[in-house]
Specification:
Length: 496
């Protein structure tokens, strides 16, 4: 493998107790747009080093939990400014290691900073103790830091889904050990290092490595909370591993989000058609909350498909993430490419029609990378794999429905319930939305286009446990502590 022309290989190390800690071995991270090129190296952290990181966090927590909320916020705001100052460098690295087009990488930084700033603005109020005086005396409800947080982030939005954990955990007075995904470890580690530079040693630690490190993070008794974003199957192992020590958990897991287009939807609305296309193929379809299956009322189905293809062919341009024309880059890794390819081939074998979408800007570039041309899948059955499984890639099935009740049933029979969207006349769409089993439902938009960090985000059923974002996303890193001062100290029914 070779280093990308004009770019130096980035090297990150584990960060333990404020020090970069070398490991005996390193792994190379390739460029998904050209897998022969090395973007950088990250360490294979050992189990023993993971233990050191947890111990450092536990020791730092003893002091950090006592710091005033104003100091915590001040430190986080300084970190935000450092991230903003380094945005170009971070975006460049993220695009190289992940495959995101530059606009998409900038978008991830935008969402990350928006959340961090919201958390800073709301932390004091969210964590303020509540004092209630009542007929029975006085009660103080405080939100106390929970301890050492093990944060495990995924590869699709590595920075946003790391900072969604780091910011509230630290603002609430906890210490944290972050483990980025080996499929996108570099930019997330760099951002964590920037944040760590504004905090006392040990408050933020970063480890890498394989399954043994993950097991240590989920079983070590000094870890009191796990914050994980990733696949549902992995989460099942985490839950089992953590059961012996009964850890608090926030789990944001898989989604097979449905978009429902009612009879009242205007198929001639070009901006709306562009929004659904973006909702299907942003980040090459590798977003947990992207619209992964589309249900369209049969009365508008044929015209919808026609207009959808037109909109997709206008917006989708597959190419080098650094080409300003590119809107869709490569899939992040070969394993995911093979999985998505398998779903599309399965649909073909079952008789579905697969329609390629968009324009390939450079065929040679396309052939050398982990690229997949986005596809529309028609004529599939509601129980086909491509409909019931989370594709996490650039393909989407569109299916007709005959009445609203059928669409609601098709939506709710999924094991997932992360987000959903309903498109059409607003009042009618809201009425449908109220019947959907989902953590978030958007009206006439979908995916990150409808995300609002001021409100809680999480899923129903096997899409997760708990909520992130909003005030709830700060308080989830605390324990509620009730202090009662009763007026009546002796209960009347207890004998002398």
């Amino acid at each position: 493998m070779t280093i990308q022309a004009g770019q130096e290989a980035v090297i990150v190390e584990a960060l333990i107790n404020g020090q970069n800690t070398k490991s005996l071995s390193q792994s190379a991270k390739e460029n998904p747009a050209n897998p022969s090129e090395i973007v950088g190296y990250f360490p294979v952290t050992t189990k023993e080093q993971a233990v050191e990181a947890i111990e450092a966090a536990a020791e730092a927590f003893k002091t950090w939990k006592k710091t005033d909320i104003a100091e915590r916020v001040t430190r986080m705001r300084k970190a935000i400014e450092k991230i903003r100052a380094a945005e170009s460098e971070i975006v460049n690295l993220l695009s190289r290691e992940h495959g995101k087009p530059l606009y998409d990488a900038h978008g991830e930084i935008y969402v990350s900073l928006m959340w961090m700033e919201f958390a800073c603005n709301e932390a004091a109020a969210a964590l303020q103790a509540e004092v209630q005086e009542h007929d029975h005396g006085k009660t103080i409800l405080s939100y106390d830091p929970i301890g050492v947080v093990a944060a495990i982030s995924p590869w699709n939005y590595p920075i946003a889904l790391s900072t969604i954990k780091i910011a509230p955990a630290l603002l609430a007075g906890n210490a944290i050990v972050l483990k980025p995904s080996p499929y996108a470890p570099l930019a997330a580690a760099k951002v964590a290092e920037i944040i760590a530079s504004e905090f006392p040693a040990g408050v933020i630690n970063v480890v890498h490595g394989g399954a043994d490190v993950g097991v240590e993070l989920t079983t070590n008794p000094r870890v009191t909370k796990i914050a994980f974003t990733g696949g549902t199957e992995t989460a099942k192992h985490i839950i089992k591993a953590a059961s012996d020590t009964i850890k608090d958990m926030t789990l944001e897991l898989g989604g097979n989000d449905a978009a429902i287009f009612l009879e009242s939807f205007d198929v001639n609305d070009e901006r709306a058609m562009r929004r659904i296309v973006v909702s299907n193929f942003l980040t090459t379809g590798q977003i947990c909350m992207i619209a992964k299956r589309v249900y369209v009322h049969r009365s508008i189905y044929d015209q919808f498909v026609e207009k959808y293809i037109e909109a997709a062919n206008r917006w989708i341009r597959i190419g080098d993430p650094f080409n300003p024309e590119t809107t869709v880059g490569p899939v992040n890794n070969v394993k995911q490419k093979e999985y998505v390819t398998g779903l599309v081939e399965d649909a073909k074998q079952r008789g579905a029609k697969v329609i390629p979408l968009g324009r390939i800007l450079d065929q040679q570039q396309f052939d050398q990378g982990y690229y997949l041309q986005p596809t529309l899948v028609l004529g599939c059955d509601e129980h086909d794999r491509i409909v019931v499984e989370e594709q996490f890639g650039p393909t989407v099935p569109i299916l007709p429905f005959d009445d609203v009740e059928q669409a609601i049933e098709l939506h709710n029979e999924s094991i997932y319930g992360l987000t959903s969207s309903v498109w059409g006349a607003e009042d009618e769409a809201i009425a449908v939305a109220r019947q959907l089993e989902a953590g978030t439902t958007m009206i006439n938009t979908a995916a990150v286009q409808g995300l609002d960090v001021r409100f809680p985000f999480g899923g129903f059923k096997q899409s997760g446990i708990g909520r992130e974002y909003g005030t709830e996303g700060i308080r989830t890193y605390t324990e509620q502590h009730v202090i009662n001062i009763p007026k009546m100290l002796d209960l009347p029914y207890i004998p002398e």
